[in-house]
Amino acid sequence: MSERESFMAIFHIYPTPENLVAGVTLKDPKEPESFNMALHVCANTDYIIENRRKLAAFLNCGLEDFVCACQSHSDNFHKVTRTDRGRGAMTTDNAIPNTDALYTFEPDLLLCCFTADCVPLILYSEPAGLVGTIHSGWEGTVKEITSKVLRHLIREEHCSPEDIKIIIGPAISREKFEVDRDVCDRFKALGYADEFISYNGQTGKYHIDNRLTVKRQCELSGIPAKNITVEGTCTYTGPGCFSYRRDKNCGRHLSFIMRKK
After folding, report:
1. How many CA atoms, within 13 angstroms, populate the side-chain half-sphere of residue 53?
2. How many CB atoms lie within 10 A of CB 195?
3. Residue 127 φ/ψ, nearest 5 degrees
4. pLDDT in tens, 69-106
5. Which of 63, 99, 176, 235 yields a CA-CA distance of 20 to 30 A from 137?
6. Under a CB-based contact definition with an 8 Å cutoff, are residues 169 and 11 in contact?
7. Taken in order 183, 184, 189, 194, is the CA torsion positive or negative?
8. Quick one: the chain helix, strand, coil %, rounded to 5?
9. What pTM value is reported for the model?
10. In the β-sheet with 20-25, what is the strand arrangement from edge to edge?
């Protein structure tokens, strides 16, 4: 097996236009910390830096091109510029604080999103030169972070919704996302998530499809359904996945996108 073929076992690259690269890293027990990508949940930071360097080599960029945030299940987003280059790449100390979505019109910056059950979104618009990532756990979803980011891009950055393409990556499935009434009520309060909620009378628990709720938020923001791809992998049951619900001490996937100059 060639080095590139071995890399393909730990990265999943999405189909995108030629000047873009987007994908998600996978769990692999043969790699350091099973190829965990997150500095905020690791046993050895050197292993995470090594894993990130491997991704950078595969993408033909440098670790200094990464831009990472300290995700906090907020509805905050940040417009990335060249001055942000390298933030969060080697340490969480200089990561963009209290932020769960990043977008940029600058080339050669790798925007990063860390998840283990939460919904990762990758977005881009070729005509606008836009790329972005959004982290939407259930708290981000009920705060409507995706809707707020898209509304900002459309109204303030003048991106056409017809041109925005969205990839919704691996996340926990409705079957495995089991919650109590308080969380269910917050989804119901959105006014458009009821069809993604079911009730298990035997356990007294509710099950919610966070991915499809986020997809609906994209559609309600004006993004055509044909522009939205939903990956079906469940992080709880997927063998190549980290799942916080399954294992509280798990690592994190890294969903990423970069526009090349």
Report:
1. 8
2. 10
3. -60, -35
4. 999 999 999 999 999 999 999 999 999 999 999 999 99
5. 63
6. no
7. positive
8. 30, 25, 45
9. 0.96
10. 11-13, 20-25, 253-259, 110-115, 66-67
CA distance 131 to 11: 19
Burial label, 176 (beta-carbon count in 10 A; 0-12, 13-18, 19+): middle
pLDDT digits (tens, 9 = 90+) for 17-40: 999 999 999 999 999 999 999 999
* Confidence tier at 8 by pLDDT (50, 70, 90): low
Residues near 149 by beta carbon (within 8 Å), at least 6 away in sequence: 77, 101, 103, 132, 134
Question: Residue type for 9, please?
Answer: A
Q: Which residue type is seen at 95?
A: A
Which token pair is 235? Answer: 């992080």
Distance between CA atoms of residues 205 and 242, nearest Å = 23
Per-residue pLDDT tens over the stretch 153-212: 999 999 999 999 999 999 999 999 999 999 999 999 999 999 999 999 999 999 999 999
Which residue from 245, 234, 181, 192 is spatially nearest to 217, judged by alpha carbons?
192
- Residue whose C-alpha is closest to residue 166's, from 193, 140, 133: 133
